[in-house]
Write a structure and sequence with these properties.
Layout lengths: L8 E5 L4 H12 L3 E6 L2 H13 L5 E5 L5 H14 L5 E4 L17 H16 L1 H6 L3 E6 L19 H23 L4 E7 L13 H10 L6 H13 L10 E3 L2 E3 L8 H15 L2
Parallel strand pairs: 1-2, 1-4, 2-3, 4-5, 5-6, 6-7
Antiparallel strand pairs: 7-8
Helix pairs in contact: 1-2, 1-8, 3-4, 4-6, 6-9
Length: about 280
Amino acid sequence: MSGELAGKLCVVTGGTSGIGRATAILLARAGASLVLVGRSAAHGREAVAAAKGAGAPTVDVLLGDLSERDEVRRIADQILTRHPRVHALVNNAGALFLRRKLSADGVEMTWALNHLSYFLLTELLHDRLLESAPARVVNVASEAHASGFIKLDDPGRLTGASAYQQSKLANVLFTRALAKRLQGTGVTANAVHPGRVDSGFGYNNGWIWRLIRPIVHRNTITPAEAANAVARLVTDPRLDAVSGRYFDTGYEAAPAPQAMDDALAERLWRLSEQSTRV
């Protein structure tokens, strides 16, 4: 991928650790400048060093909690102020909360972080992406979407694995609705399941995660291996005109039937607008 993204700027949320950091390194090797969004200053410094070592001309780290609407808006404002172009947005930040937890806005945390942050940040950067076309939006989803269903009356009613599955289904539905709105603009949107990854994901659940981790992480791959699937959706020239699709570990695949329900996708869009006050 050397040089393919020279002169391009890529934003990666959750970009200071795990799959996000590994993806950022691949994009850096392709010559991209980077904006990495994370929560830890220490991880941010490490990610900057790794990305610059991989060839990124510039690396900007923005710290914030994407589960909070005001924080997403602040980070979007910083991106818009500092960077005149955004050629790729990789929505990757996410987590699994096995116990019910609310965000600072009073929203169930899984829904706030895994879906609403994707929606809000993308909408806030919408015009800048159009100005930068050709550009791409990549939403990191999961095969877990196949077990999900959307509680449109109250998404926050779900907890644990059900909440996670719901949020990943929302990622795919959001991608389809976004792609529809981006038709003819030169900006594409696709969703990707990067594989079952053995990373720091899930450690926020403490002893419960340590107990179930050996079961969950059977037949897993490394973040570096998973990043190939994500980075491909940013770099592959064969995907220039491909939009609204779902990829499974880098290869286009059919999502679950409920993820292809365009009426549901539109209802989710309207709910997301109301929830984020975009």
